[in-house]
Automatic annotation (TrEMBL):
Summary of subunit composition and partner proteins: Homodimer.
Enzyme class: hydrolase
Key words, A-Z: Cytoplasm, Endonuclease, Hydrolase, Magnesium, Metal-binding, mRNA processing, Nuclease, RNA-binding, rRNA processing, rRNA-binding, tRNA processing
Subcellular location field: Cytoplasm
GO molecular function (one): double-stranded RNA binding
Organism phylogeny: Bacteria, Bacillati, Bacillota, Clostridia, Peptostreptococcales
EC numbers, comma separated: 3.1.26.3
Cytoplasm found in the keyword field: yes
Originating gene: rnc
Protein name: Ribonuclease 3
Length: 234
């Protein structure tokens, strides 16, 4: 593959940023390549397959940590805690810390419409980075990366300093106002089967309060609830 000079520069600079040197540069190149760039440059692999793997690697690393650290928490509470850590918002925060958007290879259209700052693109790319490190250096190196950049988010979540269960909070707020019938509705599915995006609405009675998008219906519901809380249209 003929790799352009910008991509080579991006890889070297990014390795310095995350303090990890790849033995196989093709992994990190793929992780930094968005599908929009691959569509315009057919010899580049895009990062969606790595994203799929990275999601699982991140989940097992966080699950293992919480299981061993929080010995008295029941399964339901562990699941909520993990969801609070492994979500688009957290991942995009970490992506911001390492300036991931600066290193992505994006197509011209995605570049023009602000793709470097889009939460979904950043979160997906971070999962792809985790997978690339896992494939290149194994689970231990992937774990080091995760804890190096997510330690504060993990500990703040455990201590209750980060609250991201917006659905529960919205329900509590609405019920305090006497509103009982809260509903969520799927209004759109985007993308191919292996990389679906879901768009959900939340409302009361016949009134829409917020709209959210995510990689699962549950994630989209959380984003919709957050949107409703922010707009305060109730």
């Amino acid at each position: 593959m003929n790799v352009n000079k910008k991509a080579i520069y991006n890889i070297s600079k990014f390795e310095d940023t995350i303090n990890y040197k790849f033995e196989k540069k093709s992994y990190i190149l793929e992780a930094l390549t968005h599908s929009s760039y691959s569509n315009e440059n057919k010899n580049y692999k895009f990062n969606e397959r790595l994203e799929f793997l990275g999601d699982s690697v991140l989940s097992i690393v966080i699950s293992d940590y919480l299981f061993k650290k929080e010995k008295n928490l029941p399964e339901g509470e562990l699941t909520k805690l993990r969801a609070n850590i492994v979500c688009e918002e957290s991942l995009s925060e970490v992506a911001g810390q390492i300036h991931l958007g600066e290193y992505l290879l994006l197509g011209k259209g995605e570049e023009a419409t602000g793709g470097r700052d889009r939460i979904s693109i950043l979160a997906d790319a971070l999962e792809a980075i985790i997978a690339a490190i896992y494939l290149d250096g194994g689970l231990e190196e992937a774990s080091k990366f995760i804890f190096r950049f997510m330690e504060e988010i993990i500990e703040n979540s455990i201590e209750g300093k980060i609250f991201r269960d917006y659905k529960t909070y919205l329900q509590e707020v609405l019920q305090s106002k006497g509103e009982q019938h809260i509903w969520y509705k799927l209004i759109e599915e985007k993308g191919p089967d292996h990389n679906k995006r879901f768009v959900m609405e939340v409302g009361i009675n016949d009134k829409v309060l917020g709209v959210g998008e995510g990689k699962s219906k549950k994630d989209a519901e959380q984003v919709a609830a957050k949107s409703a809380l922010k707009s305060q249209k109730f």
